[in-house]
Amino acid sequence: MNDKNICDDPCPIARCLAFLGDAWSLLILRDAHFGLTRFDQFRKNLGIGPAILTRRLATLTAEGLLEKRLYSERPPREEYVLTAAGRDFLPVLFTIGAWGRKYRGEGRLVRILDAETGAEIRPVLVDEVTGIKIGDRPICIAEPDGD
Amino acid sequence: MNDKNICDDPCPIARCLAFLGDAWSLLILRDAHFGLTRFDQFRKNLGIGPAILTRRLATLTAEGLLEKRLYSERPPREEYVLTAAGRDFLPVLFTIGAWGRKYRGEGRLVRILDAETGAEIRPVLVDEVTGIKIGDRPICIAEPDGD
DNA sequence: TAATGTTACTATCAATTTGAAAGTAAGTCA
DNA sequence: TGACTTACTTTCAAATTGATAGTAACATTA
C-alpha cells in the first residue's frame, strides 16, 4: 500500500491501517498483549522469518505501539514492551477475535478470561452514550467541515 | 503470510487475519459499509490497481463477506454487497477507527453518525455480561481443553 | 451506421516484499 | 577453549504489488 498519501486521509481507519494493516503486525501485538516481549519469543511463537520480524518490530516501535527496554546490561539485551498506544490497541484485537470466533470457529479455540475472576470475556461494541450495540442502527459519515 | 497452517490455529484472531489481514481488504470492507458496491466505485475511491482489487474482491467473496449480485441484465453487470458476515465486521472497523482517531487524529477527520439521530457514534468495547470496559482489567488466555 | 462511452475487468512487467536458510556479533557458561 | 544464548543481518529465489494499457460486452449519441 502506498502509505504516504494515506496518512493525510481524513478517515481514521485508513490512518491506522497505513502502517498496521498487515497480519504480522497484528499478531505481534496480540502476542505482546499475552505477555511476550522478546525477539525469539515472537519468532518462535509466530514462525515468522527473523528479517520480517525485525522490520515489523521496528515499525511498531517507530509508530509508538511498542518500546524497547533494556532488560540485561551484560550481555546487552533488549525486549519490546507495549506502550499506552499499544495497550489501547487491545479492543481491535478483541473485535477481530470475536468475528473469528463467530465465523471461523470450527474446532477448538482459545478463550480469553478475566485474569482475576476467570470468567470468559465476551466483547460487545456499544455506543458510549446510548449503550446501543454497534451495527444495530444504520450509520452515515460526516465529512470534515470547512477547508 | 502462510495462510494454510493458520486456519487450524486455535486463536480466532489468527483465523480472521489469515485472509483479512491486509489493508486493502479492510478498506474495501469500510467502503462497502459506507454504501459502495461497484468495482469502479471501489477502484476510484481507494486508488487501488484493478488487478489487486479483482483479487481482493474475489477473496472477500470466497470468504463469505461479500456476495456478487447482478444489477443489470443488459448489459450484464455485477456488484458486490455485504453478507451477514460482512456486516458483522463493522465493529472491527469501528475499533480500528477509534484507535486511529485517538492516536493519529491530527487535522480534520470524518466522523460517523447515527443515520437517524445524527448523533456522533463513540464506540466502546465492553464485556457483554459485566459491562466493564475491555482493557480495564488484566486478561489471560485459556488453551482449548482435551486433545 | 459509426464513433464514443461505460463498466468490469485481464495482461504485462518492473519494482518491492516475502519466506527460508545460513551467518554473525556480543556476550555467558562449563 | 568450546559450546551456548540472544538478537539480529545477509542472501536470494519466489511471490506480490503498483502502474499502465488493453479488452469484452454492451449502450448511447451523431
TrEMBL record, chains A, B:
Annotated InterPro entries: HTH_HxlR, WH-like_DNA-bd_sf, WH_DNA-bd_sf
Query: What's the protein called, per UniProt?
Result: Helix-turn-helix transcriptional regulator
Source domain of life is: Bacteria
What residues does the HTH hxlR-type domain cover? 11-108
Family matches, as PANTHER family: TRANSCRIPTIONAL REGULATOR, MARR FAMILY, TRANSCRIPTIONAL REGULATORY PROTEIN
Establish whether keyword Glycoprotein is in the entry: no
The alphabetized UniProt keywords are: DNA-binding, Transcription, Transcription regulation
Q: Do you know which Pfam families this protein is assigned to?
A: HxlR (PF01638)
